[in-house]
Request: fold
Amino acid sequence: MGSKAKKYVYSFGGGKADGNESMKNLLGGKGANLAEMAGHPKLRLPVPPGFTITTEVCTYYYKNNKVYPKELRGQVAEALAKVEKLMGKKFGDPANPLLVSVRSGARRSMPGMMDTVLNVGLTEETIPGLVKHTGNERFAYDAYRRLIMMYSDVVMEKAAGIEPKGKGIRKILDEKLDKVKHSKGYKSDTDLSAADLKALVVEFKKTIKEVLGQPFPDNAEEQMWGGIGAVFASWNGKRAVEYRRIERIPDEWGTAVNVQTMVFGNMGDDCATGVAFSRNPGNGENQFYGEYLVNAQGEDVVAGIRTPGPINEYSKNDQSKNLPALQKIMPKIYNELDSIRTRLENHYKDMQDIEFTIEKGKLFMLQCRVGKRNGVAAVRMAVDMYKDKFIDANTAIMRVGPNQLVELLLPRIDPKAEAAAGFIAKGLPAGPGGAVGRAVFTSKDAVEWASRGEKVILVREETSPEDVDGMHKSQAILTSKGGMTSHAALVARGWGKCCIVGCAGLEIGDDGKSFKTGKGAVVKEGDWISLNGTTGLAYQGKLPLVDIDVEHNKSYTDLMKLVDKVRELKVRTNADTPKDAAQAIKFGAEGIGLFRTEHMFYGEGSDKPLFLLRKMIMSKTVDERRKALDELFPYVKSDVKATVEAMKGYPVTIRLLDPPLHEFVPHSQDKLEALAKELGVDMTELNKRAESLRENNPMLGHRGVRLGITYPEITEMQVRAILEASAELIKEGKKALPEIMIPVTCTKNELDHQKVIVDKVHKEVMTKFGLKKLPFMYGTMIEIPRAALQAGNMALTAEFFSFGTNDLTQMSFGFSRDDIGSFLPDYLNSKILPADPFQTIDQDGVGELMKIGIDRGRKTRKDLKVGICGEHGGDPDSVKFCHRVGMNYVSCSPFRVPIARLAAAQAAVEAKSKKK
Reply:
């Protein structure tokens, strides 16, 4: 007996399903949820029957030169026969035709990124049967023209790999449709008569043959397999690939294909289609929220072609306030939908995004999935569901993506400036926060301008999946059409990007490079505009942005209480001023992981200390240098003291002077002359001294610990400033916990050399201040691969390690962080590297060095304290890696402290669940 054939097709419908919600990897998110809704004993919702072709077919298809497994056609025919039996119709039958939709469905939601074809199976031969059974000729031809428009675009052009010369086929057909409406004075597609649609169908077919060189297939079977192939092809379409890159979705996952019986929301005024959310995805309120269109198909709602109505009073907005609610015009259907919303949320224990269609007064569920939400909503939903005992604390913590917290910390437009400015347009608030940028009108221009470092806002009539790259590169998105469930709103919400949609009265000019608003304002390409994504207001010009106050956001503070109960990894900040330190404490920092002494020589109030530093650098003798250092000492001490005091007893890791000295040499003539005068030398001598500091490769040159070894007096001054600042605070009854960090070390001998200076100064300061104890720690930055390999020896002297992952990455890869822009995009696009190693720790190489360093260091010193202080400290994946390798803390910029706290808590939850 032969082995059983592999199952590639899973059926659902009629209260039964072959699959369930746990099979997302195989059936994709959509297929798994359709199976769950149709077949789970506690649900058995009105789902039109159909079948799912698994993601394994997609993988097979791409591995085998776009050929399907030999069993597939037979299994599809068998599954189609089951659907025909349930529906009492036959696919391709002239007398009583079954029509189907063909849709994608990856295991993670990719809204609008892959292709869909509706009304498949409608042909010249089957139209009479559809007319006979519906008694509605107009509907039949409307469905047919929609199929022709979708199929020619998705299957015949995109999937066939045809690059349009000028306009794409969909745009050409849309223009022909608009021309007919305009010539007859119609306002909406629904005004077109059966005769109009019949004539359009003939015109469409003729145009397709002329433009694409192939006739539209008038065969049901050919249409279905064309649709299936197009969905698989769209997995590797430009927009899907770009979205996966942004969302870090692996290419090898593949997509499933869902073939499902068509139900029609466009058969008349007792039909409708809509999208709804079990809670408000914009603010997290526990209110049923959604939009619908009477006499329409699903694509009309998402495309934003017509203004959708609200499903209930709560869902009304400025655009839909005068439109009737579904609850009012179809109360029985609305109550059934509301009941299903409650059942689905209770079942999945999460907010659901629901697609529904009403056909002749009967409700059908087309899809449910975990709804995309912005950060504000994600935090509120997680906390509310936890408080309502809907989910436990660990689930609440895992519900919020660390980067979603950015939205709660996003700046907003300064209310005073906003009040004075007066808005030029108002739309629907689809994405939170404020944004300022220059207006651009195409995705291509957004990408191009952003690559030059310009801040841009993408302005469109409506966005489409082709705009995804430009949307991602923009500061914000502004559209004149579309509702809260339109493509722009869905994508922006998923990314937490400022977005205003459906800006009534905003008209894009014929030149495609300007817009005019109902208030008469004209904005041209490159002009500055400002958006308030929380209120939906747009302003002309560049308004200032201000930080928001998260401490008064109760949902946020409640979530962070849960986070701090669970996490084991401490989170510190990289801060160089008391202001940064105070901000970081507000965000929950537990110390400073990197205080850079050189940063006091930049920015406000730095002129005098910078002059003294330059004087020290240009000194020729030890006496000259010591004199300059003595003058510099009070500035360094004052700066250190203010920051240590601001940290209120939390540890502060102070890195001694790190950059090469030539970086501080002035370039302007007047500053050089002032320096020469102070030193009592002429310009020739000064230029000679400056030239002697120049290096061919300063990054690997005379910097960090090497300065302290060549000029011990530089180390001595800094250490004295740190310890005297701490001693003064202790004498004042305050706490001080300095950690002295020696940078750019590669051998224990360097640490021993500097430790002699530190111990000598420590003793002198204790005597000077009459202290019996002056606590401090002595450690090093591990940023050279040799240091990681020598960690066992280094730990004989160092009490702590802080991994400087920026330089460790540079030296491990041999990449210059300042010069990777010319080749890194090619490495990422060609999958040579999975991610930018300067954003996320390279776990295979740099991470391995870190593990070796920790293991060897702790073999020597069991209580060795270990952390990181590079930019990676605020990257969620890197934070989780640091938890796994047993670090004590991560350190990041003040703004990213909450993100690191949440990522650390999630790492702890994940580790516990793995142990179980």
The mean pLDDT is 92.
